[in-house]
Amino acid sequence: MNYARFLTAVSAARKPSAIRLLTELQQRSPPSLISLAGGAPNPNTFPFQSATVRVKGGQDVVLDEALMKRALQYSGSYGIPELVSWMKDLQKSLHNPPTADYSPERGQMEMCVTTGSQEGLCKIFEMLVNPGDNVLLDAPTYSGTLAALQPLGCNIMNVPSDQHGMIPGDLRKVLARWDPTDAQKPDCTVPRVLYTIPNGGNPTGASMTYERKQEVYELARIYDMLIIEDDPYYFLQFEKPWAPTFLSMDVDGRVLRTDSFSKILSSGLRIGFVTGPKPLVDRVVLHIQASTMHTSTFTQIIVSQLLQNWGRAGFLTHIDGVIEFYRSQRNAMLSSADRWLRDVAEWHPPMAGMFLWIKLKDIKDTQRLIMERALEKEVLLVPGGVFNIISSDPCPYVRAAFSLSTPQQIDEAFRRLADLIKDAA
Ligand SMILES: Cc1ncc(COP(=O)(O)O)c(C=O)c1O
């Protein structure tokens, strides 16, 4: 793949930071190395000494004095080596990416840690999206993606979708206006980037089937597009076996995947990952070098220690418990929806994630209903318009999260919502 053709002028102009390279070097050197090179502060002057983080039903995470000093210090921009290597092993075991054994130039699988997957996405867009570029996605979509993309001045093109995600036949129709051979020409307008949330989509709850992913991947090959697979709900899939990912079918090295620990370990620790072809992940790291420098060493060490203590089996057992919780929450929400909303709304049961996407039957736009009237009834949902490319377009949907409220609260919320809808009709 010719990765250079995908880079924005900003990204192409980014140069490795000499100081950051030294930090990476130092991170891999033996303790006997005497370095007068770095500009790092002396951690002996820091007020924190050690910490013990109690872990529910497991071994505590202990930061003794030496580890604490490391946790409080600058670290490499790819992420601390033990976390990156743990995650690489996990990615390989879950997705078996064809690129794992490629040469770097051919798009060998590489990874870096990001401050939540949001940082990864934002940097990926900054790397790939020029003003005026056509970018494909299936709206409604995550508002954080729209927030990162829209100010870049690109032209976001919607690909129709349903409860199984992006519809390949419609993608084919959207792409039909271009000749695939034009993709390699400079200044061509063929989209170079396709973004999608393949599991438990935010806000729709939609999950894409393997067959659809295969068709979309084939179209990406024909038009030489990169696929951004934003998959923070991957670990919240309710049914096993989990659907194969775009990363797992990426024979060309054209998939950039973002993972997140926000929904399974902690959203506040801000740990996410970018996985993709080395030439592009290396560029994401250049963007990181110039902004945050690296994700907090402290949080990386806590997470990494936890993962080392658990091992992969312990991690997956933890995930099973999280899934169990969200599955029962989803079921509670579905039965409350059935009880209160059957006559006034429609929905599809989500197979992953934490959202139910509800279409109100006789309401053209939920914006006013929610923003002006719902609070009076003491119930709050997200009006669907905020997830549209043009947020002022009328939208009959609302997004309900089943993550935080108890089944009793969910039931009462839907009773109030039903009242609200009947009053508005
Ligand atoms: C689809 C999607 N992508 C990315 C994110 C960002 O997650 P984080 O930055 O916490 O990893 C979210 C958060 O809700 C999301 O729903």
From TrEMBL:
GO terms for molecular function: 2-aminoadipate transaminase activity; glycine:2-oxoglutarate aminotransferase activity; kynurenine-glyoxylate transaminase activity; kynurenine-oxoglutarate transaminase activity; methionine-glyoxylate transaminase activity; pyridoxal phosphate binding. It comes from the Eukaryota. CDD domains: AAT_like (cd00609). GO terms for biological process: alpha-amino acid metabolic process. Pathway: Amino-acid degradation; L-lysine degradation via saccharopine pathway; glutaryl-CoA from L-lysine: step 4/6. SUPFAM superfamilies: PLP-dependent transferases. It holds the Pfam family Aminotran_1_2. Its EC number is 2.6.1.39, 2.6.1.4, 2.6.1.63, 2.6.1.7. Residues 66-417 form the Aminotransferase class I/classII large domain. It catalyses: L-2-aminoadipate + glyoxylate = 2-oxoadipate + glycine; 2-oxohexanoate + L-kynurenine = L-2-aminohexanoate + kynurenate + H2O; 2-oxoadipate + L-kynurenine = L-2-aminoadipate + kynurenate + H2O; 2-oxobutanoate + L-kynurenine = (2S)-2-aminobutanoate + kynurenate + H2O. Its cofactor is pyridoxal 5'-phosphate. The keyword Transferase applies. Keywords: Aminotransferase, Pyridoxal phosphate, Transferase. One of its GO terms (cellular component) is mitochondrial matrix. Belongs to the class-I pyridoxal-phosphate-dependent aminotransferase family. Transaminase with broad substrate specificity. Has transaminase activity towards aminoadipate, kynurenine, methionine and glutamate. Shows activity also towards tryptophan, aspartate and hydroxykynurenine. Accepts a variety of oxo-acids as amino-group acceptors, with a preference for 2-oxoglutarate, 2-oxocaproic acid, phenylpyruvate and alpha-oxo-gamma-methiol butyric acid. Can also use glyoxylate as amino-group acceptor (in vitro). This is Kynurenine/alpha-aminoadipate aminotransferase, mitochondrial. It comes from Phoxinus phoxinus (Eurasian minnow).
